[in-house]
Specification:
The complex is a heterodimer.
Chain A: H1 8-61, H2 64-82, H3 87-113, H4 126-137, E1 138-140, E2 147-154, E3 157-163, E4 169-173, E5 179-180, E6 185-186, E7 192-194, E8 199-200, H5 203-208, H6 210-215, E9 218-219, E10 228-230, E11 236-242, E12 244-247, E13 252-255, E14 261-265, E15 270-273, H7 290-297, H8 299-335, H9 342-354, H10 357-367, H11 374-379, H12 391-419, H13 423-431, H14 436-464, H15 467-473, H16 493-502, H17 509-540
Antiparallel strand pairs in A: 1-11, 2-3, 2-8, 2-11, 3-4, 4-5, 6-7, 9-10, 10-11, 12-13, 13-14, 14-15
Chain B: H1 2-26, H2 34-38, E1 42-47, H3 49-66, E2 69-74, H4 77-87, E3 96-100, H5 104-109, E4 113-114, H6 127-132, E5 134-135, E6 138-139, E7 141-148, E8 150-154, H7 165-174, E9 182-183, H8 191-200, E10 206-208, E11 214-219, H9 224-238, H10 248-256, E12 262-265, H11 270-275, E13 280-283, E14 296-305, H12 311-322, H13 325-335, H14 342-348, H15 352-362, E15 365-366, H16 373-388, H17 394-409
Parallel strand pairs in B: 1-2, 1-3, 9-12, 14-15
Antiparallel strand pairs in B: 3-14, 4-14, 5-6, 7-14, 8-12, 8-13, 10-11
Helix pairs in contact in B: 3-13, 9-17, 13-14, 16-17
The chains are: A alpha+beta, B alpha/beta.
Chain lengths: 541, 410
């Protein structure tokens, strides 16, 4: 309706608006000034120079995805900062770039890992796996002699001039097997050091071409089963036999010793024999929902998962409840003007907050030692109370230590929130005849909760994943040895994930990522529900 | 004005960082890069802080002789295993890393290391060190030190070395101290420190193949000797001589305080004990079950990345420089662990402490470096802890543990 230029009044309005826009543009341009423009050009110049360098490197590496990203980001940055308009974009862009790299990418990548078999034995590409298998399959023939070696070069082809322990001299290269020569130059010890028609490489030459020379395999004879000479250090050659042969076209690895054929299995990312045995290492492949199926389908993981989840909620909830209760109580006490030396007390109260939490947990683990710990020795007269080795006492100890660690934070937060509540409210209530408890329950607490509850939710989320405390205090223990799984009574989800995925020599990053997605879903659900509740609380007031 | 300018500068800095980060993410994802050829004659070596100073001299000598530069990168030893496995596949890892031999199975199954040919120098090392550095019959590292536990004796409290476990308990009781002997256990027990007792009952974890490597299919831990060991553990726990409350720190402090004549520990605790004014002597671990009490041996060494482009220089540096007597002796002097090279070891044996640990180590067994060992630890310790605290029938608990380990290895 407004866009149809009808009356003269409307037209005048549009003209005025246009003038206004022009005026503001000129004002903006003028305010930019020459100095700012210079700085702008300089900084953007540096950014572009680095980006162009990065683009060249990426182009050479043929890394098209990152190349494209850098290109798009560079163009976007230039466009945004050379435009006169769009001031908000100028402020937002740096943050957005950071968000992209350090949040979106990281989260996306972890999510992607959950759908792969990334972990021990599957941590790289297929090419790496093949070359590693071939490398490891090279075995020095037992009791074979050491050949003194001189590396020769002729027209870009490297040859090995070797002297065996009997003093016989022979030469060969990758294409022609060793053959005895008689016209070699020798040094004092009888070792051949040169051959007419070839140039001898010194160590520096060898190092300069070491990749090519390390790859040279000189067959001992026409029969490949006799093995070939290779050099690990450029000065000695040894006879090697490989027991694995790779056939790229068929995608198979054959063990020449046993005759077993390992066929490439793209769904598992490894070479698998008919009897199910596989060669290590394999490579990383996408496995779909297999990791989630493992989390819920494996008995040894599913059983503990349920009890651990329950304890995680109990732990997180009790931690928040106890620390908040104590912190709030102390805040109210120290907020009372009749209290003397409040500042000293406040500093003392903050102390636990100032120590690194994992160190405190370790110290507490020592103090709670049943036989030698401070608590039992001094406070309980030498009674051997198994604070950390009895299932329920361990749970209690965890919450108690977390209370000690966490109440200063709540104390700080509540002190701040209490001081922001106007004193008149309390006075008015007192004048109306309210008892102190009523004042607290009906006036102070609701007002306090409005400002504090988002922090309580954050604290819940933090404790939900409070790995430090569990790991340092009990390491998830005590364990039920008859259960047969590596999960203890005080393990929370995050420490269980750590154990399932990382303890022991075989890491399973894929499974761990799948677990972290599950944890994220749980925390997100709890947070959403809680924030809804908070909103309701806000509306009440 | 000011605000705007600062914002712009910040924006520039961030964009620079972003481009670099993006470029950095991809660096080395392809090994055919032109940039990496330029440093083909620089060896990158990961080393821990203690060893770095010693290697500096060896590196300088090597550079002088061969023209190959050596770049030492200091790393936290505890983090090297993870980082090496993560970085080698990306092509950003080092050419050589310092490593413990029991990481080897993990390294090999991830394809991040390549065999090292010691050639004829293999015979110059202590046999146990070379065995430890081997996996499936191939040698993957150049060893530099050997480490194992032994029995530390406070000579003021016990003048003679005990021949058997019962002798030790008798001598410890006669000394009238708080504990007859000390061994660290802790809430999840400590199978590493208890292992010599276990082997003295004839119950190693894995059987061995003909070439001395461990056979993961042969789980010997659950044999009759293992059951006897479990029963013995329960008895020691019931007698109050072993306790899960005795953590490593407490055991050490008690020994320094003279609360026991004997402590089962490694060379790492000797300097503190001597500083506490205790005259210590190092003896073999006394046998509890009649057979030799063999502790685990840990071997440290250097391994070569599977993706190095400097294979020849790396081999040359390791075999001829790290493997030289001078370097091995220098590494011994900073670490206090017996050298792996026999000549350097013999020179170091003039120190009775080193000689004592070395003598025990010579009869000991390498800690299994097969990846299956990782599955053993998680059941082993808690079961021992449960047995020591008498939480059930020891033989049943032990057999349950064996079954759990067998299931986990499958």
């Amino acid at each position: 309706m407004m866009t149809t230029p009808g009356t003269g009044h409307d037209r005048a309005q549009i003209v005025a608006a246009k003038r206004q826009r022009q005026a503001s543009r000129i004002a903006e341009a003028a305010s930019a000034g020459i100095k700012v423009l210079l700085v702008k050009v300089l900084v953007l110049g540096i950014v572009d120079a680095i980006s162009v360098y990065a683009l060249f490197v990426l182009f050479a590496k043929q890394d098209w995805l990152v190349f494209g990203l850098v290109l798009v980001v560079t163009v976007a940055v230039n466009w945004i900062y050379f435009r006169v308009k769009g001031l908000p974009a100028k402020y937002l862009t740096p943050g957005l770039i950071f968000l992209l790299i350090f949040q979106i990418f990281v989260v996306g990548y972890s999510g992607y890992i959950a759908f792969t078999n990334y972990g021990t034995g599957h941590n790289s590409t297929k090419d790496d796996a093949v070359s590693s298998l071939i490398l490891s399959a090279q075995e020095r023939v037992p009791d074979s002699p050491t050949y003194a070696l001189t590396v020769l070069e002729q027209a870009g082809v490297y040859s090995f001039l070797v002297t065996d322990p009997d003093g016989d001299i022979s030469v060969g290269n990758a294409d022609s097997p060793l053959k005895t020569v008689t016209d070699a130059e020798t040094d004092g010890s009888g070792q051949a050091v040169g051959l007419p028609g070839y140039s001898t490489l010194n160590f520096a030459d060898i190092v300069a071409n070491q990749e090519a020379i390390a790859a040279v395999a000189v067959p001992l004879s026409d029969d490949p089963n006799d093995g070939s000479l290779r050099t690990p250090d450029g000065s000695a050659a040894y006879l090697y036999l490989s027991d694995l042969v790779y056939d790229e076209a068929a995608g198979t690895m054959t063990n020449t010793g046993t005759g077993v054929v390992y066929t490439e299995d793209p769904s598992q990312g490894s070479f698998v024999a008919a009897d199910g045995s596989e060669l290590q290492p394999g490579w990383k492949v996408e496995v779909g929902l297999a990791n989630f199926a493992k989390a819920f389908g494996t008995d040894s993981i599913r059983g503990p998962l349920i009890s651990v989840t329950l304890w995680t909620f109990a732990f997180a909830f009790l931690s928040v409840a106890t620390t908040f209760a104590l912190g709030l109580f102390l805040a109210i006490v120290f907020n009372d003007l009749r209290m003397r030396g409040r500042n000293v007390y406040r500093v003392v109260m903050i102390l636990p907050y100032a120590f690194p939490a994992f160190l405190s947990a370790l110290v507490w683990a020592g103090m709670l030692n049943p036989q030698f710990g401070f608590i039992n020795q001094v406070l309980f007269g030498g009674a051997e109370i198994p604070w950390l080795t009895n299932e329920w006492l361990a749970k209690f100890s965890i919450i108690f230590v977390n209370l000690w660690l966490g109440f200063p934070y709540m104390f700080l937060v509540c002190t701040g929130a209490l001081q922001s509540i106007p004193g008149e409210l309390q006075e008015a209530a007192t004048v109306d005849g309210a008892k102190p408890w009523q004042v607290f329950r009906l006036i102070k607490l609701p007002l306090l909760l409005v400002s504090v509850s988002p922090l309580l939710i954050a604290s819940f989320a933090f404790n939900f994943n409070n790995f430090n405390l569990i790991y340092m205090l009990t390491n998830g223990g005590p364990r039920d040895v008859t259960a047969g799984v590596n999960v203890g009574a005080t393990d929370i989800l995050i420490s269980m994930v750590y154990k399932v995925a990382f303890v022991g020599a075989s890491r399973d990053y894929g499974l761990a990522s799948a677990f972290s997605i599950l944890i994220f879903v749980l925390v997100a659900l709890v947070s959403i529900i809680s924030f809804r509740q908070t909103k309701a609380l806000e509306e009440l007031n | 004005m000011m605000v705007k300018k600062n914002g712009l500068l910040a924006a520039g800095a961030i964009a620079v960082a972003a481009s670099l980060a993006l470029a950095g993410c991809s660096a080395g994802s392809d090994s055919s890069g032109a940039a990496s050829d330029a440093d083909s004659s620089t060896l990158t070596v990961w080393v821990d802080a203690d060893r770095a100073a010693v290697l500096k001299d060896a590196a300088a000598a090597f550079t002088k002789e061969s023209g190959v530069k050596v770049k030492l990168v200091q790393k936290d030893f505890a983090k090297i295993q993870e980082e090496f496995i993560a970085q080698v596949p990306t092509g950003k890892g080092p050419d050589i890393t310092i490593a413990a031999h029991d990481w080897l199975g993990n390294f090999v199954s991830n394809g991040v290391v390549q065999p090292v040919e010691l050639g004829d120098t293999a015979a110059d090392y202590q046999q146990v060190a070379v065995t430890a550095m081997s996996y499936e019959g191939k040698t993957y590292g150049v060893p530099y030190s050997i480490e194992n536990i032994a029995l530390l004796r406070n000579t003021a409290l016990a003048p003679t070395a005990p021949a058997t476990f019962d002798d030790m308990v008798a001598a410890g009781t006669a000394a009238g101290t708080e504990f007859p002997y000390l061994v660290q256990i802790g809430p999840e027990a400590d199978p590493y420190h208890l292992y010599p007792f276990q082997t003295s009952f004839g119950a190693p974890v894995f059987g061995t193949n003909a070439d001395g490597s461990y056979n993961p299919d042969d789980l010997t831990v659950g044999n009759a000797g293992g059951e006897a060991f479990a029963t013995w553990l329960a008895a020691e726990g019931a007698a109050g001589r072993m306790s899960v409350n005795l953590t490593g720190d407490i055991a050490k402090e008690k020994f320094y305080a003279g609360a026991s004549p004997f402590l089962l520990t490694g060379p790492w605790n000797v300097p503190d004990a001597q500083a506490a004014g205790i005259d210590v002597s190092v003896d073999a671990v006394p046998s509890a079950g009649g057979q030799p009490a063999q502790p685990f041996v840990g071997v440290q060494g250097f391994m070569v990345s599977a993706k190095t482009k400097n294979a020849i220089a790396a081999n040359e540096f390791l075999v001829n420089y790290i493997g030289s007597e001078d370097v091995q002796t220098a590494l011994y002097e900073v670490g206090g662990r017996p050298p792996a090279l026999t000549a350097a070891f013999e020179a170091a044996s003039s120190d009775p402490i080193t000689a004592g640990f070395g003598a025990v180590g010579a009869t000991a067994v390498p800690m299994p470096n097969i990846p299956q060992m990782g599955k053993v630890w998680q059941f082993w310790g808690v079961t021992e802890a449960a047995i020591i605290s008498n939480q059930g029938d020891p033989v049943q608990l032990w057999q349950k543990m064996t079954a759990d380990i067998a299931a986990a290895i499958q």
